[in-house]
Amino acid sequence: MKTILITGATSGIGKATAELFAKQGNRIIICGRRAEVLESVKKELSVLTEVFSLKFDVRNLEEVENAIASLPQEWKNVDVLINNAGNAHGLEPLSAGSTDDWDSMIDGNVKGLLYVSKTLIPMMKERSSGHIINISSVAARQTYANGVVYCASKKAVDVISEGMRIELTEFGIRVTNIQPGAVSTDFSLVRFKGDQERAATVYAGYEALKAEDIADAIAYCVNAPQHVTVSDMTIYPSAQSEPRTIHRKE
C-alpha cells in the first residue's frame, strides 16, 4: 500500500487516477482548490480506502507549503506525487493573446508543479525512495499555432521531468513524464472559458481518450517493479496521428 498525493484531483485525469489507486488499496491525498468538491470526492473515495484532502492552489507557494506541512504525521511519508494540476486558457495567436491567460498557464503548469515538487522532494530524498509523475502533453512534442504559450508550458514540464530524473535517480526516486493526446475532459471547456458548443467540436467525429485511459497508464508506471522506471510515455487516441492531426469521421 502506497500513500499517493494527487494535485488537481477533483475532476478529469486527477479524479480518475485517485479512483483507480483507491480501488487498488492505496491511501490517497486529494488536492484541489474547491473545498466543497474536495469533500464530495473524499466522501466518494472513502468507501474504498483512507483519504485525506488538502485545499490549496498550486500557484501559491505559501498555500502549498502550509497545506503539506499540515499533513498529520501518519500521512507525511508520500510515496508517489502525481503533478496533475494544470490548465489551458485561450486559443489565439500571440499578438492577440491575453497576458492573464499566459500567467495562469505558466503559474499553474510550470511554477505550480515546481512548488509542490520542491516541498515534497526533500522528504523523499530523506527516505531514499519515491516516485514523481508529471503530466505533460503531446503539445510539448509539436508546437501549434494559437497555442504557443500552452505548448511552451508543457515543453517546460518535459524539461523539468528530465532534470528531476538526472538529479533524483541516485536517491532512489523514479520520475515519469506522461504526454496525453486528446482526452475528453473539461480541458477544452476551460480553454474556451465555458463555451460548451466550441468545446464539443474538439471531440467531435472520433473517439477521444478517456481520463481513465490516462489513469491506467499512470498506474502501470507506479506499479512497475522497483528496478523499472518508465521515463516517458506518449498516449494518443487511435484517431490522432500527431498533436495537430486528428482523423474525424464525416
Automatic annotation (TrEMBL):
<keyword id="KW-0560">Oxidoreductase</keyword>
<protein>
    <submittedName>
        <fullName>NADP-dependent 3-hydroxy acid dehydrogenase YdfG</fullName>
        <ecNumber>1.1.1.381</ecNumber>
    </submittedName>
</protein>
<dbReference type="InterPro" id="IPR020904">
    <property type="entry name" value="Sc_DH/Rdtase_CS"/>
</dbReference>
<dbReference type="InterPro" id="IPR036291">
    <property type="entry name" value="NAD(P)-bd_dom_sf"/>
</dbReference>
<dbReference type="Pfam" id="PF00106">
    <property type="entry name" value="adh_short"/>
</dbReference>
<comment type="similarity">
    <text>Belongs to the short-chain dehydrogenases/reductases (SDR) family.</text>
</comment>
<dbReference type="GO" id="GO:0016616">
    <property type="term" value="F:oxidoreductase activity, acting on the CH-OH group of donors, NAD or NADP as acceptor"/>
</dbReference>
<dbReference type="InterPro" id="IPR002347">
    <property type="entry name" value="SDR_fam"/>
</dbReference>
